[in-house]
Structures are given as C-alpha cells and as structure tokens.
Write a structure and sequence with these properties.
The protein is α+β, with helices and mostly antiparallel strands. The chain has helices at 21-29, 44-56, 153-161; strands spanning 63-67, 71-73, 76-78, 81-86, 94-99, 105-114, 123-129, 132-139, 145-149, 165-170. It has 2 domains: 3-56, no CATH class; 63-170, no CATH class.
C-alpha cells in the first residue's frame, strides 16, 4: 500500500503500513511525506492524530436526509429523494448512500475532518456547479469530526470552470 502511494518504505517507519488508506492519502496530500518529513519527530503528532481520525469520523447508526434535486455521490448520479447514509465497515474510509426505496446506492470515499465546535445537527452539504450538485460533506450531530467526500474528476473539472454554490440538507 505504501509503495502504491509513492512513499518509500523504510525500517525506521514500520508504523506507516498500519495506517488506513484514507489517512495515508490525506497525509500524502498535505505533504507530510515530502522531503523526508516522516523522519522528523515533530511530525509524530500528525501521524498519531491521523491514526485516530478514522475512529472518530464514524456514523454509528445512520443519517437520513432528503434531496429535492438530483446529485452526484462519487461517480453515481442519484435522483431526488430520501436517502440513508451508513458506514458498513467502521475501519474503512467509505460510506454507503442508499435511497430509501432501494433503487439507488453508491459507496463514496471520504477524508475525516475536524471542527472546534461539535455539530449541532447531522446533515449533508452539497457543492453546486452550474446546474449539477455534488455531495461534499457529511456532518454528525454532537461530533467534532465529520467527513469530506473525495472529489471526482468530473467535480474537479467543474470546480475549475465555475464557482461553487454551497447548500445543505438537514439529517435525521
């Protein structure tokens, strides 16, 4: 897994191979592995915090929400309707979004996020580019931790072409 991310494995850092793939990707995106940064003791806090995030960014039961518009969840186009978000594997960096009628579903990968203040309500946030909506974030009531959905190539392209309008749908 480490080699796939372009990180050189070394005997001094065997703990890196035990981190979940989402945390490794997040650390790589932030540059934590550049310039031999993972050898510097100050970065031990980043790695320690990173290994705790998947334990915190979890959906214990489910989050229900309604979207009055079609949207993309990852690469899947979801019709307007009522949805439920669950996390089938608490150790994985993905969630399942499924329509209440069972006709539409998608797994989407996420990166854990942190907020100083606990969320007041569960819900989802969308980014709208032109007339296309993309699922962006998932918030969990009472938690400081949340989830940012990984951008797809289509959303990255839309993001570079036009400004996003953010809007939310409350959950449960």
């Amino acid at each position: 897994m480490i080699a796939r991310l372009g990180v050189k494995r070394c005997g001094a850092c065997p703990y890196l191979s035990g981190l979940p793939s989402g945390i490794l990707r997040a650390l790589q995106r932030t540059g934590a592995f550049s310039n031999r940064a993972y050898f510097i003791p100050e970065n031990a806090a980043v790695l320690t915090l990173g290994s705790a995030l998947p334990l915190m960014a979890q959906i214990e039961n489910s989050i229900d929400f309604t979207a009055s518009f079609p949207f993309y969840a990852g690469n899947e186009k979801m019709p307007a309707g009522s949805y439920q978000i669950t996390q089938p594997d608490m150790n994985a960096d993905h969630v399942l979004i499924q329509s209440k009628n069972g006709n539409s579903s998608a797994f989407v990968e996420f990166v854990p996020t942190f907020s100083e203040q606990p969320r007041e309500k569960s819900g989802v946030t969308f980014q709208k580019y032109g007339d296309v909506d993309y699922l962006s974030r998932i918030s969990i009531e009472g938690e400081n931790y949340g989830m940012k959905v990984d951008l797809t190539k289509a959303e990255q392209k839309a993001e570079s072409a036009t400004a996003a309008v953010e809007h939310s749908s409350p959950g449960n």
